[in-house]
Amino acid sequence: MSLGKRVRRHPWISTIPMLGLAVGLTACGAGGLADQKVASGGGYAPSSPGARAASADEAPSHAAMASRGEPLGEPAIDRPGLGTSWGEAVAAPITFSPFVRSGSSPWAEVLFHYNDAEGVAAHAQYLGTRPAPLEIYAGDGALSVALVDEAGRTLPGFTAGGRTLIVGEDGARYRIVVRNATSARFEIVASVDGLDVIDGKPADPNRRGYLVDPHGVLTIDGFRTSDDVVAAFRFGRVADSYAAQTDQAFGDRNVGVIGMAIFAERGMVWTPAELGRRETADPFPQRGYAMPPR
Question: Which residues of 18-51 are buried (b: 16+ CB within 10 A; e: fewer)?
Fold first, then answer.
């Protein structure tokens, strides 16, 4: 693990603790690039859908072919349900702070699926449940994650069969909120529709992410376009999603899923699980009789 990587920290309103963004373009554990700052616009999502240039080895997207007047062949079938579109610019300034992961594997992972009300309601009815405001607890319950609307209300959803589904509304803005109930810091590498929320590229947990402070709240508002601004997350048609318009590798294949890889910081952590072990420690674990020597 490279030491001294700087982590971007985001000043929020006084009622919300500060958060940060861990920066480093190498995988955790790789050398080099310590304390290196990513140039504005060089490590973030393109400023608008379709702005990422394809390499010589990449097939041009339908949008790129259409702009050049090239034939597109058979039109793609419009998929039902929701994706996440590129929203308006939102001020979200960040700074740096050091963070060293406790290991190369995530401490916990969180996965949300989302869809419109009709799709989620049908799925809920099939499973014999119904949506309600939903917050998911990660790992041993030390962190919780929810999707909230523009007013901060937790979006409805349900969990069943190991899957979490959230109800979205076409055109509505949403945010990802992570709450930390411990005295330790955690790093959150987040993806939306298979794309990293910082640089807009296919997501990889080995990239650096945002920090949530001890007993703090992290709010991720959109795809980051610079040190100071993000493009808001907004639900929209799959065809209009940011992934469908920019991802040369996967297109809209991963639309409808939000993921988080959560990394603990190197050092001891007082998590609820550790506190529970202390609480249930037995001073006399063996109450049997002495055994004869062998």
Answer: bbbbbbbbbebeeeeeeeeebeeeebbbbbebee
CA angle, residues 65, 71, 72, in degrees to nearest 5? 70
By the 10 Å C-beta count (0-12 exposed, 13-18 middle, 19+ buried), 114 is classed as buried
What are the tens digits of pLDDT across the range 246-270? 988 888 999 999 999 999 998 867 7
Domain ranges in the chain? Answer: 7-26+78-279
Q: Strands, E, within 131-286: which ranges?
A: 132-133, 136-138, 143-149, 156-160, 163-168, 173-180, 186-192, 195-196, 210-212, 217-220, 222-224, 229-237, 257-264
Q: What is the pTM of this model?
A: 0.67
Q: Is 110 in contact with 177 (CB distance < 8 Å)? A: no
**Which residues share a beta bridge with 145?**
136, 178
Alpha-carbon span 150 to 146, nearest angstrom: 13
The token duo for 35 is 């304390």
Query: Average pLDDT for residues 20-25, to the nearest whole number?
Result: 41
